[in-house]
Amino acid sequence: MQPQKIVVLGGTGFVGSHLVPRLQRDGHTITVLSRNREQHRELGVLPDVAVVNADVHDRAALTRHLAGAGAVINLVGILNEHGSDGSGFRKAHVELTGNLIAACAAVGVPRLLQMSALRAGEGESFYLKTRGEAEARVKASPLAWTIFRPSVIFGDGDGLFFRFAQLLRIAPVLPLARAGAKFTPVHVGDVAEAFARALIHPHTVGRVYELTGPRVIELGELVRWTARMIGKRRLIVPLPDPLGFLQAYVGEWLPGKPISRDNFRSLKLDSVSRVDGLAALGIVATPMELVMPALLSGDDRQRRLDRFRGDY
User: Domain NAD(P)-binding, which positions (predicted)?
Assistant: First the structure.
């Protein structure tokens, strides 16, 4: 497939900061829509990459910036909302996706790659429910779509290992809600590669790819492993669900909202899959043990801890 013009929503987040350079290497011309381009100059210096100011929730603005594009990638996602009624999740996931589909139809953009989440549409959390509702809108659209459902994503500056590393550096004892929740962490580079390959392979149209790493690990063990990687001996205390829910409620009022009741509800479902979406795309999953020790314990560890970004 020939290089094309691609518009990326959410391209300045964690996944986007890895995906945009990957797409640029394939020769694509990329427009990244951002609320504040001045804060993301590092992407704009790449050849054939433009970061432009835009309100992605404004359908007219979307329509204007999508004109002439061959594909759009929607990476927008939030893990927490300002309130607790689900309206923030609905705006970021469902309403935005609906506006994006309408804008694509208005200017004739044929292709949509949509970021979702493993277990989307299941369980009680607003996060997973709205991810599922967004998927339903994509599937019902006339676009040539591909949906990606990753487990938790790790890599340089992630919101998983680096968030816990920050907490472990200051807390000798860490109470942990849902410590037995299972994950299959997937490397951000593998996720970026999956998107890049989907763009050039027509057989990915109309497919949903579940993206997982090679290891199933419980949250408690993941946190203990992180403590070892940063050279800290810490006591991790698993909480029973009633206390875990209380911790999540209190966490909603703390700076940075480290955990919320909706996070707690999401953790009731294990983020695992029996379907290897990476393998279906010809990608060998990267083990966390191959990447994270150097990132967490390197000479520039504190810089990395300070710059992590939790959202997509």
Answer: 10-153
In a domain, 240, yes or no: no
pLDDT score of 310:
40
pLDDT for position 39: 63
Mean pLDDT of the chain: 93
Residues listed for the chain = 312
Quote the domain boundaries for residue 119. Answer: 5-157+185-215+272-286
Hunting for tokens 């429910």 — which residue is that?
A: 129
- 259 part of a folded domain: no
CATH number at residue 190: 3.40.50.720
Looking at the structure of the chain, the number of domains it has is 1
Share of the chain above pLDDT 90, in %: 86
DSSP letters, the chain, are ----EEEEESTTSHHHHHHHHHHHHTT-EEEEEES-GGG-HHHHTSTTEEEEE--TT-HHHHHHHHTT-SEEEE----S--SSSSSHHHIIIIIIHHHHHHHHHHHHT--EEEEE--TTTT-SS-HHHHHHHHHHHHHHHSSSEEEEEEE-SEESTT-SSHHHHHHHHHH-SEEEEETTT-EE--EEHHHHHHHHHHHHH-GGGTTEEEEE--S--EEHHHHHHHHHHHTT---EEEEEPHHHHHHHHHHHTTSTT----HHHHHHTTS-B--SS-HHHHTT-PPPPHHHHHHHHHHSTTHHHHHHH-----
Give the residue-averaged pLDDT of 205-234: 97
**d(C-alpha 165, C-alpha 143), whole Å:** 41
Amino acid found at 233: R
pLDDT tens-place string over residues 104-152: 999 999 999 999 999 999 999 999 999 999 999 999 999 999 999 999 9
